[in-house]
Write a sequence for this structure.
């Protein structure tokens, strides 16, 4: 059971030194109990006290890291069932399915398709982070190992879907340094698969014919000392997969049953085999409820655009606005002589406006100042996007020293700022742009 703030306070040094950022040790203890800060923020807790609290204060879901370097993915670590309660922290990852049962032409086609979806949305790279490589016994171990080599060349996190310990060992020999997931432990082979996974230092995925068997197998692996685990949602039907994902998350978060507190793998290639439309719909469902790794037959822009938009909205802190950094964003090869536009730092506004500016093909400088991460009208009403704040930022950022053009377009929704800005930015021609971003393309072309 998780420790309460008073329990943590009893073990604290009671120095009230404020070095942790909290005014008192009691305040710090309360934050630790809520999961708001780490116990390591206090330099004076004894190692014995830390050891006593580490298990109790850890998130009810285990945090699992897979992949290495820029490809490292963090899974699990959640503390709530619903985003509005606090926030979700580690986003769902999408994997494209490959199988050694496929013919060579199909394999090459799928491998070529995977890198094609790779774009940026609101400062985040959108692409298939994982490849699920499934072993078909009839195709043989050699073909599987070769397929693993080809998949590893795409520089993605691999999920090795193989239940044969010897084949798993051979596959890991060619990719274990990239820290893949070995997905193949079950009630009959978990001891052998555990030895292979721990020997290679990789996470182990666990299967069960039902939730009871899955739970017992995870518990048996924990007794062997392995907590670097993921569980597979039941593939018998959509209903069973959903039930497994929800029941395990609820047991971990609400009942504090840590045996259920592991990230999940939802293999839609098996649950909805061959039905791409259903897979796309289910991917959205299991992004919300509660897939850590979602496996699909393909990831084209048709699947990616709605899925990554949903994921980005879901895995953001609802208490913190999404913002971009203030600065000058040069679009379409703009230089110091290109026309200037300004808008707020709300990430969605920036994304929409910059997209339309790029579509226009007109070189322009988009100047963003700190507006609190709010929309245009909201920040204007709050006084965060005003003639004073814009003029102040122009002075602080030395905009006039960096840009020779003296034409500045402001959002049409705050046309009221035109006169004030002309007074506070002498020498600048203030132009009222359209109210809607979609009208910017015609507006800029007409200006030319």
């Amino acid at each position: 059971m998780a420790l309460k703030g008073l329990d943590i306070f009893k073990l604290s040094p009671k120095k009230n030194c404020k070095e942790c950022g909290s005014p008192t040790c009691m305040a710090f203890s309360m934050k630790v109990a809520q999961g708001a800060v780490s116990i390591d923020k206090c330099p004076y807790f004894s190692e014995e006290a830390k050891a006593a609290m580490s298990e109790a204060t850890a998130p009810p879901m285990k945090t699992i890291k897979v992949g290495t370097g820029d490809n490292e993915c963090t899974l699990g670590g959640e503390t709530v069932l619903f985003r509005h309660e606090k926030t979700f922290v580690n986003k769902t990852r999408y994997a494209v399915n490959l199988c050694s049962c496929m013919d060579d032409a199909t394999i090459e086609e799928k491998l070529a398709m995977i890198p094609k979806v790779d774009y940026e949305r609101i400062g985040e790279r959108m692409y298939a982070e994982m490849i699920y490589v499934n072993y078909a016994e009839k195709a043989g171990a050699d073909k599987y190992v070769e397929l693993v080599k080809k998949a590893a060349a795409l520089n993605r996190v691999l999920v090795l879907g193989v239940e044969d310990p010897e084949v798993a060992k051979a596959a890991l020999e060619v990719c274990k340094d990239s820290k893949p997931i070995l997905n193949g432990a079950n009630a009959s082979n978990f001891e052998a698969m555990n030895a292979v996974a721990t020997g290679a230092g990789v996470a182990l995925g666990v299967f069960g014919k039902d939730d009871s068997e899955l739970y017992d197998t995870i518990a048996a692996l924990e007794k062997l000392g392995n907590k670097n685990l993921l569980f597979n949602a039941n593939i018998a039907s959509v209903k069973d997969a959903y039930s497994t994902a929800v029941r395990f998350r609820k047991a971990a978060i609400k009942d504090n049953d840590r045996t259920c507190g592991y990230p999940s793998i939802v293999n839609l290639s098996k649950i909805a085999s061959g039905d791409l439309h259903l897979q796309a719909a289910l991917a959205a469902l299991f992004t919300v409820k509660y897939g850590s790794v979602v496996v699909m037959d393909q990831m084209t822009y048709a699947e990616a655009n709605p899925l990554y938009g949903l994921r980005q909205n879901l895995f953001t802190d609802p208490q913190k606005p999404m913002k971009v950094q203030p600065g000058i964003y040069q679009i379409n090869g703009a230089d110091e002589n290109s026309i200037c536009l300004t808008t707020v730092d709300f990430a969605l506004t920036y994304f929409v406006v910059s997209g339309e500016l790029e579509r226009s093909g007109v070189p322009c400088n988009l100047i963003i100042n700190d507006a609190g991460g709010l929309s245009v009208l909201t920040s204007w009403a709050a006084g965060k996007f005003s003639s004073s704040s814009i003029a102040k930022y122009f002075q602080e950022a030395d905009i006039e020293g960096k840009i020779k053009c003296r034409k500045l377009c402001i959002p049409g929704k705050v046309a009221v700022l035109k006169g004030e800005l002309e007074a506070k930015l002498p020498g600048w021609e203030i132009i009222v742009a359209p109210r809607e971003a979609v009208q910017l393309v015609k507006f800029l072309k007409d200006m030319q």
